[in-house]
Specification:
Elements lengths: L2 H4 L2 E3 L5 E6 L4 E6 L2 E6 L3 H19 L3 E6 L5 E6 L5 E3 L5 E3 L1 H5 L6 E3 L6 E3 L17 E2 L6
Parallel strand pairs: 2-5
Antiparallel strand pairs: 1-8, 2-3, 3-4, 4-11, 5-6, 6-7, 9-10
Length: 147
Amino acid sequence: MSNLEERPEERIARFPELKCSLTDDATGTLHLAFSTMEFYAETIAEARIGVVSQAARQAKALDRPVRLVITEPTKEELSVGVWADACVARLSETGDATHPAHESGIDHWPTAACTWCRAHTVIAGVYCTQCGKKGPHQLLIRPNVTD
């Protein structure tokens, strides 16, 4: 029996909660426990992918899914669970979520365009399978600019 069959629905812990605020110009802020990072991307879609990639790394380090709250540019708030394989599922009102592969019966690893070479590669991957660069979906950190 696979891990997904044993635990179809999980309670997603509240800590560490990752919170992300996105803006119309594809910039944003990511809060993870006690640290904050400002970032930018080419598009809002790429910013979302970078945030999910960051959450997946946290899930992998903790060996469990993590809670991610995304505030869209429209101010709509979305609460999701993110697994180490970068699969994402909406949280129920009780904070439970089911891994998408369990619902579909297909074990898959989500992919998206690499930040560097634009080839599609696994979001949870450490290296791009095409260009070999590390962090194919990493968030680009906005530099601190002082006037």
